[in-house]
Amino acid sequence: MRTAFTADQIRGAEHVLMARLPEGTLMQRAAAGLAAVCADLLGRVYGRRVVLLVGSGDNGGDALYAGERLARRGAWAGAVLAGSKTHEAGLAALRQAGGRVVDGSALDAADLIIDGLVGIGVAGALREPYARLAEDANAARAPIVAVDVPSGVDASSGRVQGAAVRAKVTVTMGACKTGLLVDPGASRTGTVELVDIGLGPYLPDPDVTALTRDDVAGLLPRPGNESDKYRRGVLGVAAGSDLFTGAAVLAVGGALRAGAGMVRYAGPGAPVTQVRSHWPEAVVTELRRPSIEDVGRVQAWVLGPGLGTGDWAHELAAEVLASDVPVLIDADGLTLVAGDRGLLRRTAPVLITPHAGELARLTGADRADIEADRLAHARAAAAELGVTVLLKGSTTVVAESAGPVRVNATGTSWLSTGGTGDVLSGIAGALLAQGLSCYDAASCGAYLHGLAGRLAAEGAPLTAADVATSVPAAIRAVTGGHVR
Ligand SMILES: NC(=O)C1=CN([C@@H]2O[C@H](COP(=O)(O)OP(=O)(O)OC[C@H]3O[C@@H](n4cnc5c(N)ncnc54)[C@H](OP(=O)(O)O)[C@@H]3O)[C@@H](O)[C@H]2O)[C@@H](O)CC1
Ligand SMILES: [K+]
């Protein structure tokens, strides 16, 4: 499990550790790790030009001491001092090793840029001259190594207000920061390298976690000798309408490919015909009225893709939500719930899977605000609505009212195409039916969906149906495909 922490959490742990060590020890550990990554990136250190962007705090101190180490190995090291003050001991060390103070024009001829403008101590958007230096560094041809976080990215949320460094590598100290895993910040980090400075034993529970392949392999249900289709999990899918038939086909497809023992599809005539012809494996009930009475027993429901938002859909949603099994609500289901919050009054668990626009409709928050601070809005919605929230987007986040938010970064931009959300609801719904909690079903579902998208795309456009087709390959890639 990858873990990440807010700036305050890191500072708290640093405080305890620092009190036990001689002054300056942590910064030397940080600088040593930083210099090693820079040296790797340069290949040969001797004679290369390294420009350090140095802010007024300890982030600048890290950069200066790393510059000192590179200068001792024969690099030309020039520090651009951006702040009202500078880490004096770090600057003296750099000078003693042969480094110098330069102005921003040195960026043009740099082989490597070290961004030590600001780290976890930043407040708000970058001020001048930091903002201009960040932009000049981005425009230069040399790769940028960000110290701790790319300057301009809020370490605790991933928020970017104004200019921000776009790094090739981010060398983060002690533990990963939340903002490195959540967009828009995550898209600025490049590769994230962690330098162990001994913080581990002093860290609290993480703010954010990200499942690894092994975590997902451990959580995914696998059939045993005693399994039959009922014990493996029966998923009900209430989706599709005479106007929108594809959503039903895709949601059922996602569920079947993700290992549901059986999928029971319930809907009106047109999608019924489509689901039957695409998926003879599904057990289909054509609804003459909005009732699930004749559908049979299920262990979880997916409600909403392509369902429509009229009275018929509302009645069906009310019936599904009146059941005593977990329900995943997506798409039109979310619009229905936004118009009638009373539908969410139930005791069995609810997982909602909105994108930012749908969450905005549900909570009244501004869509742009949600996109700027995905974590805070997903958490707040989970607490306000009493549900698990899977907020879709370039970094998908899964939040409950308490505990760490799980983020998923397996996705690809090729997944931003119609119908992929329907497939995701099928996958996560199948995992719910197989007994996973909303939190695990959502985070494993997002992981598999992202990976299936990557496998299906291979750098080219994909369709939602391709994603569903690739789900077994994604599961195989996660579990190693061992026959059992
Ligand atoms: N402590 C340790 O032992 C270790 C610390 N470590 C390192 O220290 C870093 C944290 O250092 P930190 O706390 O000094 O804060 P930091 O991120 O350098 O920035 C603070 C300065 O930025 C400025 N500033 C703020 N907002 C701004 C804005 N919007 N726009 C422009 N400027 C702004 C503000 O300047 P001022 O307003 O005072 O001029 C303030 O002084 C951490 O990320 C890690 O790299 C690691 O090596 C591990 C060991
Ligand atoms: K930085």
General description of the model:
- The chain has helices at 7-19, 25-42, 58-72, 88-96, 130-139, 213-219, 246-257, 269-278, 311-321, 332-339, 356-363, 367-372, 374-385, 420-433, 438-457, 464-479, and strands at 2-4, 49-54, 76-81, 100-101, 112-116, 144-147, 169-173, 191-195, 208-210, 234-238, 262-267, 283-286, 300-303, 327-329, 350-352, 388-391, 396-399, 405-408.
- The protein is α/β, with parallel strands linked by helices and 484 residues long.
- It has 2 domains: 2-207, Rossmann fold; 213-479, Ribokinase (UDP-N-acetylmuramoyl-L-alanine:D-glutamate ligase, 3-Layer(aba) Sandwich).
- The strands form 2 sheets. It has an 11-stranded mixed β-sheet with strand order 1-9-18-17-16-15-14-13-10-11-12, with helices on both faces. Strands 4-3-2-5-6-7-8 form a 7-stranded parallel β-sheet, sandwiched between helices.
- The longest helix is centred in the last third of the chain and has 20 residues, at 438-457.
- It is elongated.
- The protein starts with a strand and ends in a 5-residue tail after the last helix.
- The mean pLDDT is 96.
- K(+) binds at residues 59, 115, 151.
- It comes from Nonomuraea zeae.
- AMP binds at residues 392-396, 421.
- Its EC number is 4.2.1.136, 5.1.99.6.
- This is Bifunctional NAD(P)H-hydrate repair enzyme.
